[in-house]
Amino acid sequence: MSAVLVRVESGVQRITLNRPERLNAFNLEMHAGLAAALEEAERDASIRALLVTGSGRGFCAGADLAERDMKPGSAIDLGESLERRYNPLVKRMRALPKPIVCAVNGVAAGAGANFALACDLTLAARSASFIQAFVKIGLVPDCGGTWFLPRLAGLQRAMGLAMTGERLSAEEAERCGVIWKCVADGELLPEAEKLALALAQGPTRTLGLIKKAVYSSTGNSLEAQLDVERDLQREVGKGEDYREGVAAFREKRAPKFTGK
Ligand code: T3D
C-alpha cells in the first residue's frame, strides 16, 4: 500500500496519510507522495480544493523515529532533512492558491501537528489532540510550529506547549483559535468533505487571493495591508466570478462560480 493515497473527485483532491501502523509518521515515501500530490494540485486546474486526513486511529505522529539510526557516535543532519523535505512541503502548501482543508482524525504529534496547522482550515475530531512532542526527544518544534503557534495561540501558550510537550485537546485547540473547528468523531469526515466541496465550488481565484492576503498580513503594517487589499480587489473585480456573484444576488439565485 502507498504511504499516501490520493483521489480527485468533484474538484476536491483528497490526500490520506496511509501508514496507520506507525500512526502515519513521515518517512521518505510519504514525503514523496505528498510532494507528488501537491505537484498535481498546482498543475491541474480542475482541482479547486484539497482535503488532508489520516488513516487509522492517528493523524500523523511526526518524523518516523523507527528509521533513525541512534547508535553512539552516529550523527544526522536534521537541518538537511528539514531543508529538503519539511520546509518545501510547508512552503508549497502556503503558496498553493487553493484552499487546503485538514481533517485531524486522531493524535497529531511533532511535525504531524504542525503539518495540520500549515493547512488553511483545520478541523479535528473531538478525540483528536495536538502534541508538540519535539521537546520530549530533545528537539525544537519544526515544520512551522514556532511560527504558527505564537500567531494562533499567543506567545505564552505557544511557549508552554513547546516547552512542556503537553497534549492539547481538540476542544481546547478550537477554544484558543489553534484550529477552525472541533466536531464529534463521527462528523469529522462528513463535515470536512462538505467544507472542501463547498470551497471547490467557490470562486477559486478569489479563495487563492484571500489566502495570499491573510497570510501576507502577518508581516505587514495596516497601511501595507490596505494596499494589498486594494490590489487584490482590483484584480478580482475584473473577474467572471465577481460578475456572476453580483448577477446571482440580483436575480435571487445561487451563484455558479467557475473559479476564473
Ligand atoms: O527528519 C527529521 O527527523 C526531522 C524532523 C523532525 C520532526 C518531528 O516530528 S520530531 C517528533 C517525532 N514524533 C514524536 O516524537 C512522537 C512519537 N510518538 C509518540 O509520542 C506517541 O506515539 C503518540 C503520543 C503520538 C501516540 O501515543 P499512543 O500511546 O497513542 O500510541 P503508541 O503506542 O505510542 O504508538 C502506536 C504505534 O505507532 C507504536 O508502534 P508499535 O509499538 O505498536 O509497533 C509506535 O512505536 C508507533 N509510532 C508512534 N509514533 C511514531 C511511531 N513510529 C515511528 N515514529 C513515530 N514518530
What features would you describe in this structure?
The protein has 260 residues and is of the alpha/beta class. It has 10 helices and 10 strands. Helix 8 (204-217) packs antiparallel against helix 9 (222-237). The longest helix has 18 residues, at 78-95. The protein is globular. The structure holds ligand T3D. Ligand T3D binds at residues 22-23, 25, 61-66, 78, 81-82, 107, 109-111, 131, 133-134, 136-137, 139, 142.
Assembly context of the chains:
single chain
Could you give a short account of the major beta sheet?
A: 6 strands, mixed
Bound molecules: ligand T3D
The radius of gyration computed from the alpha-carbon positions, rounded to a whole number of angstroms, is 19 Å
The helix content is 40-55%
**Uncertain runs with pLDDT below 50, 5 residues or more?**
none
Number of strands: 10
- Structural class from helices and strands? alpha/beta
Proportion of residues in extended strands:
15-25%
The number of helical segments is 10
Q: In one word, what is the shape?
A: globular
Average predicted confidence as pLDDT: 97
Order of helices and strands: EEHEEHEEHEEHHEHEHHHH
Question: How far is the N terminus from the C terminus?
Answer: 37 Å
Order of neighbouring strands in the sheet with most strands: 1-2-3-5-7-10
